Amino acid sequence: MRQALLRLLIGFGAGAAAGLEAPWGLSRRDAIARSVMPGSLLFGAVPALAADRPEERSTYSKVSKAAANLPGYGPPDVWFPEQFLGSWTMKRTVVSFDTANGPLNEKAALVEEQLLRSLPAGPEVQYPVRFQRLGNNVIADREFNERSYFEALAAATKTAAPSASSWDPTSPNVLTLTLGSGAVIEKKVTKRGTEGDAVAQGGFGSSEFSRIAETDAAGVGGGVPKLSAIRTLSRWKFDPRAAPASVKKIDGIELTLFYDLNNIVAGVDSSKPSRVRKCRLELSRE
């Protein structure tokens, strides 16, 4: 059964890019309706940057666009505009949370969802994040940012902070986080796309499809992990007239679509997300 579920989950990444309009003008109901397959992008999967040498750009672009539509391919990481480089304070606010199949199944909810709903001051959290240089590109420090996020959730909910984490920026698709409870979360990005054509106008977007395996404290070392899949779509806006280092605020919207493998086993339609969360993001620095 476990191997069958893994094969089903791996198959989710095989959908080609749908090339739809950017989703931020859609209602939440429309967002669910337009996500026919979890493998489809709400905007086209295109490379964020071309090759270093101008003569290679055309060929590189064509190959990258084609590869981005295949599972396991696409840009090696999300390459952010120069404006993101450095340390920031992230303010994350949950704007809406919709479930398509009735009340949320607590057994299917991810640890992050459970912690967010337990926040005593409402669905908002602040924590430090940073973006670093890798070669000629700017990438998110995924390990620092994820651990910082869960540390903020733990502090707000008076639970144990993460005790360990693992991630390699040169091979960025797998991130592992061990919580203070002993639970282990592994997130593996299997497909990604970026929308970098609007950077000159102060806009940037990305889409990632991830498989998530969560093993609770009692199951470490032999328990069957809870398997889920999520698609995360982010859209950012900043002042394109300012020098990158002088940008002090970047606003964003994040749409997260959750898919439960439990629905497949139960015979429930799994081609649409079981729940959709919309967050308002704000990056700020002095």
From TrEMBL:
<dbReference type="Pfam" id="PF20670">
    <property type="entry name" value="DUF6816"/>
</dbReference>
<feature type="signal peptide">
    <location>
        <begin position="1"/>
        <end position="19"/>
    </location>
</feature>
<feature type="domain" description="DUF6816">
    <location>
        <begin position="72"/>
        <end position="285"/>
    </location>
</feature>
<keyword id="KW-0732">Signal</keyword>
<dbReference type="InterPro" id="IPR049213">
    <property type="entry name" value="DUF6816"/>
</dbReference>
<protein>
    <recommendedName>
        <fullName>DUF6816 domain-containing protein</fullName>
    </recommendedName>
</protein>
